[in-house]
Write a structure and sequence with these properties.
By secondary structure, this protein is an alpha/beta fold. The chain has a single domain, classed as 3-Layer(bba) Sandwich (FAD/NAD(P)-binding domain). Helices cover 25% and strands 28% of the residues. It is built from 9 helices and 19 strands. It has helices spanning 22-33, 73-84, 121-126, 170-177, 184-188, 245-250, 256-271, 311-314, 318-333, and strands at 14-18, 37-41, 54-56, 59-61, 88-90, 95-98, 103-105, 113-115, 131-133, 140-144, 147-151, 163-166, 191-201, 212-215, 220-225, 238-243, 279-292, 299-301, 306-308. The strands form 5 sheets. Strands 7-6-14-15-16-13-17 form a 7-stranded mixed beta sheet. The protein has a 6-stranded mixed beta sheet with strand order 9-2-1-12-19-18, covered by helices on one side. It binds flavin-adenine dinucleotide (FAD). Flavin-adenine dinucleotide binds next to helix 1, strand 13, strand 17 and helix 9.
């Protein structure tokens, strides 16, 4: 529920955004452009959240979001700007689909974008010019003299914010919101499925004929050849495998080593691959894809000046995260005069 009330001017307000994923960065950029003094906090070592690229030895893997589409005007405009600046490009992959028996070409009807040199290039571009504090997990929020203070083990200034925006997955927002604002219950209703991702490096090209494969399978739902993405070394035979939500949930507490072995073995069996990868790493995304969204673009408590946004508001897509952060920031800025 979004509570409407008269809004004070945003200019010069000191605002904390928790979460430097696509939603938090979209909100922070818009608020800063509107004149607010914004600090973004993220617990990770880098920006981007699930728009992630991992470096293993000399190879890079997009192990979170694989690509994104741009359907609405606001995101299309931002994508066009980032593409012009060289941060992203369409992924000209050979798309395939495995229906449980055969692997066949898949026609796609809209551009699918990726970051150049890795997905994390996109959030890095969105973060340009923002004040971002990394390695900064916010563990509690408190209010004194109508200002917000954040609990965090950091040397950065965490006190005296006029407003706070949580741009984190809903299960991570709930503990910070419970007992503070009524909309915590709506946030708690949004749910995620997990995803085990496996990054595998092979010595030479696999004879599959496709770069990006969606699967109807009980174990693997997605397989992508990273080397086919713009900016990746040609001939770099690195694959990312994503387990299905059901398999990931059933094996959520399995060890990363075991998951790596199981998924690679299954991938080899499905497609008759004899080659063994020379390196395999698995990563568990506990909150990967939104299953039940909140159905509202954002949440905002105008009395306490605390808000929440993220993909969980609208759906399991990068664009949904962007739209949610943008919508909350625009709500705070108010109509142009
Ligand atoms: C395996 C996988 C595959 C996907 N595939 C696609 C795809 O192909 N196409 C697509 O469009 N989308 C895809 N997605 C979904 C897409 O990545 C997300 O919808 C989008 O990136 C979410 O952005 P966000 O800003 O809402 O959240 P996030 O990217 O999760 O950002 C939240 C940030 O908050 C930080 N944080 C959390 N708690 C705290 C705290 N207490 N203090 C400080 N910081 C905190 C986290 O470190 C993180 O950086 C995929 C996701 C995964 C995991």
């Amino acid at each position: 529920m979004n509570i409407d009330a008269p809004r004070p001017p945003i200019a010069d307000q000191k605002i904390a955004v928790v979460g430097a994923g696509c939603a938090g960065l979209a909100a922070a950029r818009t608020l800063q452009d509107g004149g607010a003094r914004v600090t973004v906090f993220d617990k990770s070592r880098g920006v981007g959240g699930r728009m992630a690229t991992r470096r293993i030895d000399d190879r890079r893997f997009d192990h979170g979001a694989q690509f994104f589409t741009a359907r609405g005007e606001a995101f299309q405009d931002r994508v066009a700007g980032l593409q012009a600046g060289g941060a992203l490009a369409p992924w000209l992959a050979r798309w395939g689909h495995y229906d449980g028996a055969r692997l066949q070409a898949l026609a796609i009807d809209e551009p699918r974008f990726v970051g150049v040199n890795g997905m994390s290039t996109v959030p890095q571009a969105l973060a340009t010019g923002l004040h971002i504090v990394l390695n900064a997990e916010i563990t509690d929020l408190s209010r004194a003299n109508e200002r917000w203070n954040l609990d965090c083990a950091t040397d950065a200034d965490t006190t005296g914010f006029d407003a706070v925006i949580l741009a984190v997955p809903s299960p991570q927002a709930v503990p910070l919101l419970t007992g503070i604002t009524d909309f915590a219950a709506d946030v708690a209703a949004a749910t995620y499925a997990p995803c085990w991702a496996v990054m595998a490096r092979f010595a030479s090209q696999l004879p599959l004929g496709y770069d990006a494969i969606s699967l109807d399978d009980g174990v693997i739902r997605w397989a992508a050849r990273n080397g086919s993405k713009p900016g990746f070394a040609a001939g770099s035979e690195t694959w990312v495998l994503h387990a299905t939500p059901e398999w990931s949930l059933a094996n959520i507490e399995e060890s990363a080593d075991a998951v790596g072995d199981i998924l690679v073995d299954h991938f080899q069996q499905l497609f008759g691959i004899a080659q063994v990868p020379d390196h395999t790493v698995a990563h568990r995304w506990r909150y990967a894809l939104v299953v039940a969204s909140a159905g509202e673009p954002f949440f905002w408590d105008p009395i306490l000046k605390i808000g929440a946004c993220g993909d969980w508001c609208l759906g399991p897509r990068v664009e949904a995260a962007f739209d949610s952060g943008l919508a909350l920031a625009r709500h705070l800025i108010g109509p142009a005069t």
